[in-house]
Design brief:
Elements (H helix, E strand, L loop, with lengths): L2 H4 L3 H9 L6 H8 L4 H12 L17 H6 L1 H9 L24 H12 L27 E4 L4 E3 L6 E8 L6 E9 L6 E9 L3 H7 L6 E3 L17 E6 L12 E5 L4 E8 L6 E3 L2 E6 L6 E2 L1 E5 L13 E2 L6 E8 L4 E10 L3 E9 L5 E7 L10 E9 L4 E8 L16 E2 L9 E9 L18 H10 L7
Parallel strand pairs: 8-12
Antiparallel strand pairs: 1-11, 2-10, 3-6, 3-9, 4-8, 4-11, 5-7, 5-9, 13-22, 14-21, 15-20, 16-19, 16-22, 17-18, 17-20
Helix pairs in contact: 4-7, 6-7
The protein binds heme C.
């Protein structure tokens, strides 16, 4: 028997031997007709890879034709086998399920591996699917309101990542319910991710006016500091964007409110490309289509803190490869969870969020085993998750502050505390929730508290300030 012909790739040989399955007749049959590029592989690359692997997008090379794929056949097999590509960090077996999840099926992974094993045959171009076409159009159709950064921001070619907040007056004369949001990074080579929020206090405009360049500077995750030195919190949140994000409508009957006169804030994370670049990013807002009964609000799970204004008491010792951080939040009214957005910086290693209901039932909401700062996005549940009053949301995360962590920004490692700089750390779960007892009957969105959401923020802080019970 010609072993090299029938045996799959090295890793799977080991697995197959362990499973005692090396000589199953089915494998011989599959090996007899290896997958071809046009018939079997091209459809997978079209569906799962080309949105990023094409010119001008985030990925460093294209996967649009046979030659491009053939050269990398074995890398393609490896990164898909190792679940590195397509990038999707949430566990697919625990937590979720999430809308727009980027995952390959077992059989798609096997097709790519078998194709590489068979030395990447091209097959017959007649078997090829029609090429996937790309438009620069908005995926959900024309937005009701497009806001664009008016003065392009000039980004240097080298140095650390930069964060800027752009302040875009909405010009809305009445409050609107927002059912979906989409983004168009002006320059996808350098825009790493975007968070959108809004301000009704005018303070963001003041911060903008005080900074000479377009927008104003901030550090990772924040929206800047007020002249008092206290962090500035937007009045409310909208959605976020990371490469490959597909816009989604909020679940029927739910929406986010955007009050009259609000300024939309875009917090853009820039990653430098080696050359000076410019960027002017746009946001497209879609007004809710049907009647809106419930407002989507943000709740925040923090690690424990000493007092209301204190920062979470995070101290990650240098050299510690597995530092544990916990936090929790109790839900005060029957609610539904629409999405979660975990946030840590470069030392983040893994992240787990679970719900413990008053009846004792436990449910993992999201589990990320290999945290990657570069791939942060809101995870939207396919079906909103019921959180009855009294449900405890528990957060459990680990940080790797050892020299062996290639992402550690400090060499040698130093003690790391809570802060907005990317050399500081954070450990936060943003929750998007609706209250079951709310019935808006299509009333327009109310203007949030004058203090720029501080009241709500303090309430959230105080309700998450008790140390987590282990
Ligand atoms: C959401 C965007 C996105 C999608 C979808 C995506 N990639 Fe990638 N890919 C990237 C980026 C960005 C990189 C560069 C490395 C990084 O930043 O992780 C990359 C790198 C790679 C690499 C090189 C890895 C290395 O270690 O050098 C391979 C091979 C690859 N992708 C294959 C694929 C395949 C195959 C698919 C589809 C099954 C896919 N990618 C889907 C964005 C994407």
């Amino acid at each position: 028997m010609n072993l090299p012909l029938i045996l799959p790739r090295r890793v799977r040989i080991v697995l197959a031997v362990l499973a005692g399955a090396v000589f199953q007749p089915g494998m011989v049959a599959r090996a007899a007709a290896p997958p071809t590029y046009h018939r079997d592989v091209e459809p997978i690359l079209q569906q799962h890879c080309q949105e990023c692997h094409r010119p001008g997008q985030v990925a460093p090379f294209s996967l649009l034709d046979y030659e491009q794929a053939r050269k990398r056949a074995s890398d393609i097999a490896t990164v898909t086998e190792d679940r590195v590509m397509p990038p999707w960090h949430a566990s697919t077996t625990e937590g979720g399920p999430f809308r727009g999840a980027r995952v390959l099926s077992e059989s798609e992974r096997k097709t790519l591996a078998d194709w590489a094993d068979a030395e990447a045959p091209e097959g017959d171009p007649k078997d090829a699917p029609p090429p996937r076409t790309w438009t620069s159009d908005w995926a959900l159709g024309p937005p009701d309101l497009i806001l664009k950064v008016s003065e392009a921001f000039a980004l240097g070619g080298s140095g650390p990542d930069e964060y800027r907040v752009f302040v875009l007056p909405s010009g809305l004369t009445e409050g609107r319910w927002i059912g979906a949001v989409d983004f168009k990074p002006g320059n996808p080579k350098v825009v790493h991710h975007i968070l959108a929020a809004y301000d009704v206090t005018g303070r963001a405009r003041e911060l903008d006016a005080a900074d000479k360049a377009s927008g104003y500077e901030t550090s990772g995750g924040g929206y800047g500091r007020l002249p008092t030195g206290l962090p500035f919190f937007p009045s409310g949140q909208l959605w976020g964007w990371a490469p490959g994000r597909r816009p989604q409508w909020a679940p029927p009957g739910t929406a986010r409110g955007l009050p009259a006169g609000a300024d939309v804030l875009l917090q853009v994370h820039y990653h430098k490309s080696g050359k000076p670049e410019t960027d002017a990013t746009s946001i497209g807002l879609y007004f809710a289509r049907g009647p809106v009964d419930k407002e989507i609000r943000s709740r925040v799970v923090f690690p424990p803190r000493a007092g209301l204004f204190a920062r979470p008491d995070l101290r990650i010792p240098p050299g510690d490869p597995h530092h544990e951080v916990t936090g929790d939040l109790t839900i005060e009214n029957d609610a539904h969870l629409i999405a979660v957005f975990p946030h840590m910086h470069y030392l983040g290693k893994d992240f787990l969020l679970r719900a413990i209901r008053p009846d004792g039932s436990r449910q993992t909401l999201i589990r990320i085993d290999d945290w990657d700062f570069n791939w942060q996005n809101p995870y939207e549940f396919t079906t909103p998750v019921a959180l009855p009053k009294g449900t405890r949301i528990e957060m459990l995360a680990h940080f790797d502050n050892s020299a062996a962590n290639p992402r550690n920004p400090s060499k040698p490692p130093i003690e790391v505390r809570w802060g907005e700089q990317t050399t500081d750390e954070m450990c936060i779960a943003f929750l998007q929730v609706t209250r079951d007892d709310q019935h808006l009957r299509n009333r327009p969105p109310a203007r949030p508290a004058r203090a720029g959401g501080v009241r709500e923020f303090l309430k959230q802080r105080s309700s998450s300030s008790q140390p987590a019970k282990q």
